[in-house]
Amino acid sequence: MTFDANMLLQAAHHVAGSQQYPKGALYLVATPIGNLADMSLRALHVLSLVDVVACEDTRVTGNLLRHLGMDKKLIALHQHNEVGSAQGVVALLQEGQRVAYVSDAGTPAVSDPGAHLVQAAHAAGLTVVPLPGASSVTTAMSAAGDAQANGFRFVGFLPSKGAARVSVLQEVLGARDSVVLFEAPHRIEALAKELAEVLPQGRVTVCRELTKQFESITTLAMPEMSAWLKADANRLRGEFVLVVHGVPDADERQTLSPAMDALLKELVRHVPVKVAAGLVADAAGMPKKALYDHALAHRNADDPDDLS
Predict the structure, then answer these.
(1) Is the pLDDT of residue 1 over 60?
(2) Helix count (H) and strand count (E) of the chain?
(3) Would you call 267 helix, strand, or coil by DSSP?
(4) Cα separation, 170 vs 252, whole angstroms
(5) Nearest-angstrom CA–CA distance, 296 and 48
(6) Starting at the edge strand that comes first in sequence, how are the strands of the sheet with 73-76 ordered?
(7) Listing from the earlier edge strand, what are the strands of the sheet with 240-244?
(8) Distance CA 243, CA 285 (A)
(9) Which pLDDT does position 254 carry in this prediction?
């Protein structure tokens, strides 16, 4: 079966055409992160409707539009020229033109360029219309299954230098939130070692080539990541999105085993509560604070009048 761009656009117009698309508005259009089938019908309709498409890379966007049977005026707006070029786009909007902005892949202004352009449009009192769609951040989060997390923090790419990278990791890891990171293939092994050093008790979901033919999604204990990468050369290729799972609060992290609980109960009969809690905490690999109240309860059960 051959690809029929006209038929696809007709379907897009039929589904999305009833909504109002005002002139002089900036349309933020999410594009596929790998699989072209993730292009939404509404995105197709808007791209066919706008007068100009501002984009991160005219070559990438030009290829996409040609594949979709479109030919549009393109304006380059990327991280190196966004601040200056934003005013040119604002001028077009003020003339009443519809302008779409797309990054090379995914949702604009999320790690990719676009935030300065949106800020400039808002400052000029212009309408900004976001079109939801593909995003590697939410795609990875949905597949990570971090049920203990309160939410997530998006960090994106870390600094390239090792010391600065470790500093950021120490700042953001270890909380209840999941943390979403991006990484390039040539730095993924270094990142695996740094993650294991900063959060050795953690878990990480490694997403590679999301939505593409050789997509892989694997959840590992943090110390296992380096060996997992080295076990197959193909695992070092492609684009990486990592979800570092949130770390439960100390009192939720580990339940005291029956044997350790029995030891704690026996110890509080012979030594102060603080000492008993410390000894069992060391043996069980748990924080002392998490065991103090537990030890005190055992002591009070044995001797309610003893407050030591």
Answers:
(1) no
(2) 13, 10
(3) helix
(4) 21
(5) 70
(6) 73-76, 52-55, 99-102, 25-29, 127-131
(7) 152-157, 178-183, 240-244, 203-208, 216-221
(8) 25
(9) 59
Task: Please give the structure tokens belonging to residue 8.
Answer: 């696809």
Residues 289, 248: Cα–Cα separation, whole Å = 15
For residue 279, the one-letter residue type is: L
**Distance of alpha carbon 94 from alpha carbon 35, whole angstroms:** 35
Whole-model pTM: value is 0.78
105-137: b (≥16 Cβ within 10 Å) or e: bbbbbbbbbbebbbebbeeeebebbebebbbbb
Q: Return the structure tokens found at 71.
A: 């030919």
Strand partners, 53: 74, 100
Q: Where are the alpha helices (DSSP H) in 160-212?
A: 162-172, 188-198
Distance CA 170, CA 195 (A): 9
Q: Is the pLDDT of residue 82 over 60?
A: yes
Rounded to 10 deg, the angle between the 82-94 and 115-123 helix axes is: 40
Residues 54-65 have a mean pLDDT of 97
Average predicted confidence (pLDDT) for the chain:
91
DSSP state of 221: E
Written as six digits, the tokens of 150 are 């309160």
Q: Strand, helix or coil at 276?
A: helix
d(C-alpha 25, C-alpha 40), whole Å: 19
